[in-house]
Amino acid sequence: MSIxxxxxxxxxxxxxxxxxxxxxxxxxxxxxxxxxxxAGKTTLLLMLAALLRPDSGSIRVAGLDPVTQxxxxxxxxxxxxxxxxxWDSLTCTEILMTFAAAQGLxxxxxxxxxxxxxxxxxxxxxxHTPARVLSLGQRQRLGLARALVHSPQVLLLDEPASGMDPRxxxxxxxxxxxxxxxxxxxxxxxxxxxxxxxxxxxxxxxAHGSALAPSSPTGSPRGAPELPSEPRAGTLATGPEAxxxxxxxxxxxxxxxxxxxxxxxxxxxxxxxxxxxxWAQESLPQARTTPEGAxxxxxxxxxxxxRLLRSALEAGVEVVSFAPAGGGLEEAYLSLEEERR
Length: 341
Ligand SMILES: Nc1ncnc2c1ncn2[C@@H]1O[C@H](COP(=O)(O)OP(=O)(O)OP(=O)(O)O)[C@@H](O)[C@H]1O
Fold this sequence. Notes:
Elements lengths: L2 E10 L2 E11 L4 E5 L6 H8 L7 E6 L8 H7 E4 L11 H11 L4 H14 L15 H13 L5 E5 L7 H16 L3 E5 L3 H7 L2 E6 L2 E3 L47 E2 L2 E7 L2 H11 L4 E2 L5 E5 L2 H13 L4 E6 L3 H13 L1
Parallel strand pairs: 3-7, 3-8, 5-6, 6-7
Antiparallel strand pairs: 1-2, 1-4, 8-9, 8-10, 11-13, 11-14, 12-13
């Protein structure tokens, strides 16, 4: 596990921001951190990044203790805050080189990394522009470049897409998947659930300073069938040592919450809705039919989708579309909120 927190608590004066939180996040994955305003997400990320001390509990990030090894944690972690404060008179290159030098990179390597990172976030043409000129979205992209300049093992992102345009958001999603496939552990807090859904392997829900988990895989519509599938590479699961509490329960020192695997929801439409319904009844007795006569299915991975499509076609169903539906994460979040009221 790349990130582990056990019974972590942090209060501000008498207000608890994070309360006896226990989570475990595996290496080489993208995990979403989701919860309402004030749930404690930023406070948790700051503690993981060794920028805020917990009052109690223990944390390990890439095997390091942020309390006793803050310097080492800063080198292992890339941190992107929701608003990136920079030195406005410095140019983008100078800012990145300054951070790279602070991470121990020599000046030549720092210059190379600065150039690479600016290219990665499409800011090369602003390399020599002072930061004060940057727009909000460009500033966010520079913040991402800053977080990555020292090739961290763990990347912590707090609302990274806010302020970014659609193209930059799509680039960010691709980048996060690439980093995870190269072994980087990514923990990303976001309120933009539709976009988060497209990039994460699993999700940790937070409320009132604790981690919690819904009782079913995230994105799985209620009553949807458990479809046969091969385990997807990188798919997260609840380990035997780590129990996921049911909806409404808080994570406590005794129960470590792991990311809930994200099951993509797919929507199938056919020329003949009756034929589609008949096939679903025979092959997928619990499938949910939408009011328009389409089917909404929990599909674990592309291979499962291909199997379903083949099965439908072989049964003579004239499928006109079969694609990820989205909205499952938001549905899970809202139902979790509903249950907690
Ligand atoms: N420096 C601080 N001083 C006092 N209270 C704080 C401080 N930082 C956070 N808090 C409080 O701690 C709680 C958790 O805040 P936090 O910013 O971690 O939540 P969040 O989940 O990140 O919220 P959001 O989604 O709105 O960003 C809130 O009640 C907040 O008011």
